[in-house]
Each structure stands twice: as structure tokens, then as C-alpha cells.
Fold this protein.
Amino acid sequence: MSWVNAIIQGILTGGLYALFACGLSLLFGVMRVVNLAHGDLATVAAYVGIGIIAVTHVPFLWSIPIVVAIMAVVGYVLQRSLLQAAITRGELTTLIVTFGLSIVIENGLLQFFTANNRGIGVGSSLISSSFSIGSGLQIAWLDVAIFGLAVVVLLGLQYFLSASKYGRLIRAVADDREAAQLSGANYQHVFGICAALAFATVALAGIAYGMTTVVSPTTGTDTILLFAFAAVVIGGLGSLWGTLVGGIVLGVSQQIGAQINISYELLAGYIVFLVVLVIRPQGLTARRSQT
Amino acid sequence: MSVTTDATVRSGQDLKVTRSRRNVAWTGAGALAVVVVLALFPYIVYSGTTAIMVQGLIVLTLASMWNLLAGYAGLVSVGQQAFFGLGAYFILIPAMHGVSPFAALPIAAAGAAVVSFPLWWLVSRLRTGYFAIATWVMASAIMLFIEQIQSIGGGTGMPLPGFAGMDPTLLAAYTYWAALIVAVVAIGAVYFLLRSRLGLVLTAIRDDETAARSSGVKVGLARLLVFVVAAAGCGAAGGVLAIDQLQVVPATSGGVFSVQWTAIMAFASIIGGLGTIEGPIIGTAVYMILQQTLQSYNAWYLIILGLVAIGVAIFARRGLWGLLDDKFNIRLFPVGYYLWSPGETRRRQRAKGPAPVS
């Protein structure tokens, strides 16, 4: 029974990992930017959520739209200023700038919030309780809710990009920036909107992580960035559904690893990641090879 | 370009290609003098000063290696702490079997280099940004793996044996010399590698990878070589850190597998100037000044260093040395070539001419 439990928990955690990976995929897909500060921005979102709840005493559910809105604005502004300046100077500069940002944010959080762990208190509502199937199979409503949220976000993004008018514009800019510009698209604004979307998902990921467990200043790189990346590579670059599959594979392998020995949890995830990298570098779901 | 010049170029008359526009004999002598003076430091300064300089020399070695990776081979690795940490463990493990930690330094370099082969095979499947995160995952996985091995300290680390009963002053001096030798060998290795065929190959790849590939340049092999050399250098630096701290701690902040080591080496080489050998030296000086001034304010020096690195990456892409070079046209370590125009002599160097090809 404990194995079934591990697999179910793994699938549910996989939803969270897919949520982590969403913003990373989006920025890479549209702007070819690999945002090394991705995880730290999610941690910032979690801290902003903690701060808002602590200061204004709003119910924790209300803090979610506030944080998402703040991070979306931050995303747009950061893209139009720093990230755009880096993109025009080339890939190396983009990596240096996002890595610099990552280290600055991490140490800034360390400086202002100390290395202590903090969590987002979800209170004693329905969402913090759990239900059981059969004997010994406990499933937290919160995990189910986050998995559902991840699926909704991925589904929504997929629909937005493939079916909506603005999504078509984004894909046009991603395919050929100059041609889109010649047709009248302001590609910098489109990039800004994309970054706002990506940062909104990053905010959701950060808050969701803060609710399920605790965050510390190093969570961003130790956990969120690396798991997001592993989910993206396992699932296949540039595919949102692949990301969900990758997240679930990562989550299940971690839980199975933890079942064998609690200290193998992270290692098991990385081993699966490396195996996929060796056997199928294009990812489990990708049809065409990585460019 | 006039017709006559073209004709001269074709006939190959009066043309000269040198490494630098200036005579480099005096810079070579100067470098030697600096190394000799640095080697005498334990006799002339307090051990507190040499202790700080050991840190500086470790950072210098690391920054030179990161510069070789990112500045010359275009490989942005944020997982170099893997090799740094492994270097520390390759000192610890022989020391536990009775090998002197100083004698184990070549083992640390060679060990890290050997480990880098299979890791390259894994991470080279991804390019640029995803390569960067893949190296990070690799470093995390190695740390988690090392933490599982209880006989070498597991997750808490271990003190370094082998120095029992040694005079602390002597130990400090030996540590300093070891750090100096590692740094000088690292910079020397980078210098001679870049002057060799590899330097030419890397320049060709940087300018146009597709063209280089189609001209028969083995791009993958060149990158592999750089990755292995950088791993060896970081391994040796990690070994020096183990000797300096007399312990090896894997995780937590300040541990050998902390990403802060990669942050420091990257920031130092970016601020100093990527793609020049002099850059990391200047960058290390900036790093040490900031770190020493702000060390009582915890993590602030890393925050400021990161902000400066971001600013430099955007506004002065060739770093501080690049600014100096633009103004005075100096190269302490000439690794490129300079083509003399017919009749041009050294005396005309102040005239506005084409920038040297590097």
C-alpha cells in the first residue's frame, strides 16, 4: 500500500513541479531566454505572500491574486528593462545577467529574512484537511488542489497560445522576430507580456510551494530551478504537456526513491533525469529533436 | 584599402605577424618578478596577510578557469563547484590514507579532470542556457552522492588529517606557496593553451561556429579539452581550500559544493573582463577588496558583486580590463596575432591603427 501511496503522492507533487517549469518553458520558448533566476523569483513570490498575509491579515486565498498581479508587473518591467537589454547583447550576457540576479536575490533574501524556514499558513479550512481511500492512503486536499491548479494553468496556457489571437501574435514573434515586427507587431511589448505571464505562473508556483512545505532563501536554486529544469528536460523542451509528464515522472521517481531510503529522494529524481538525458535527450514526449 | 596595399599583401613583401604590437620581453620579466616577490611574501608580511592572499589566489585560479570556459569557449557553467568540491575530497581521501595533503594536490587536479569526462558526455547534450542548468544539476547530484558516503564525513564533513604536530607558521607558509603555485600554473596553462592551436580553434569557433565546423575544426573536442582543463584547475583550487580550512564541509553556505563558489568565480571574471587573461586578475582584486571591506556585513559583498557584474555585463561587456585595453592598448598576455602594415614600426604605435586581433 505504501508503494501505491508513494506513486499517488509523486503524481500530485509532479503537478507542482510542472507548475515550476511552466514559466521557464515559456520564457525559453518565446524569447530563447534561460532564466537562471527563475527559482529565486518564485521564492520571492512566496516571501511576498508571507509578507502580505502577515501585514494585512487577509485570508491566504486572497493573497494569491495579489502576489500574482505584483509578480506579473515585476515581470513586465524586468523584461522591458534589464532582460531586454541583456537579450540584445546576446546569449552569454543573458545568462550572466540572470545568474547575477539569482545570486543577488538569494543573498538579499538571506540578508533580510535570515536563513530560517517559513511557510504560508493555510489555516484550518477544508483545504488543509485530507481524505483517505481505503486503509492507510491519505491524500491532502491541498495537494489535489495544487495538481488541479497546475493542470488548469498548463491547459489555459496551451489554449491561449494555440487558439487565441494574442497567442498567435506571441507565436509569430517567437518564430521570426523581424518578420513580426515588419507586420506591425511591437515585439518588445509582446516579450513583456510573455514575461508577465511567465512571472504570474512563477508566483503561483512559489505560493503553492510555500503552502505545501516551507521556503528558505536557498529554496529557489536548490529546489525550484533544478526541479523545473529536470521536469522540462524529462518531458521534452518546448512542450507544455511534456512538462506535465516530466514533472510527474520526476515526482514519482523522487517518491519511489524516498520509499527505498528517505535520503535517496532527491538523488533518485536526478538519476532519472540523467538517464533520460542519456537515452532520450529530446525528452520523453518530444517528436522532433532539440534545436 | 588602396590597390598598392593589396598588391603588397599578395606579394607578401614587408609583412610581419607578431603576437603583440609591443615588445613583450619586459612584461614577461615583470610577470616573473611579481611571482618571485609573491613567493617571498611569507618572509616579509604577517601570516594574516598571507591567509587573506590564499583566499585571493583560490579565487584567482577559479576565475581564470571560468574565464577559459565562458570567455574563450562560450561554455557558461554554473556547476563548477562540483569540481571544486571533488578537488577538496580528492585531498581528504588520500590524506585519510596517509598521503600528505600537499602531495595530493596533483591527485585533486587529475581526479577532477577524470570525473569531468563522463560529466561532459552528459551535459554536452544541451546547449547554452540549458547547458548551464545541467551543470548545476550535475553539481547538486554529485553533492548528494558524496553526502551519502558516511566514511568520508557524509553530510557534515570531516577535518583534514595529516598536519598533526606541524608548526602553524610553517603550515601557513606552505599553504600560501601551494596556493601560489596552483594559481601560477593555472594562469600559465591558460596562457599557453590559448597560444597553441587550441586558442586559434576557439577564436574560430567564437567568430563563426558553423564556418569553423565546416573547415574541419573539431568543435566538440576543443570544448571538451577546455572543460577538462577547467575541471582540473577548479579541482586543484578546491584542494587548496581544503588545506587552508583544514576541513572539508560539503553543503551549507561556505561548503565546497556551494553555488556561491561559482558565483564568485563568474563575477570576478566578468567584472575583470571575459576573454582576456588579465581580466580575472583585476576581477579577483576587485572581489578581494569588496569582500574584505564588507565582510562584517554578511552577504552584502555578494549582492554588490552580483549587481556590479550585471552592470558590467550590460554596459562594459569587456570588463574593467577591456576599458583599460581600449584606452591604452596593453596586453600583458598576448595570445592573438598582430599584422603589421608595410613599413609600420613600433614607434608608430600611438597612431590610430586597427585594434589588434585577439
The two ends of chain B are 21 Å apart (CA to CA). Residues 57-257 of chain B form one domain. Chain B touches chain A at residues 70, 74, 76, 78, 122, 125-126, 128-130, 132-134, 136-137, 140-141, 144-145, 147-148, 253, 259-260, 263, 266-267, 270, 274, 298-300, 302-303, 306-307, 309-310, 313-314, 317 (CB under 8 Å).
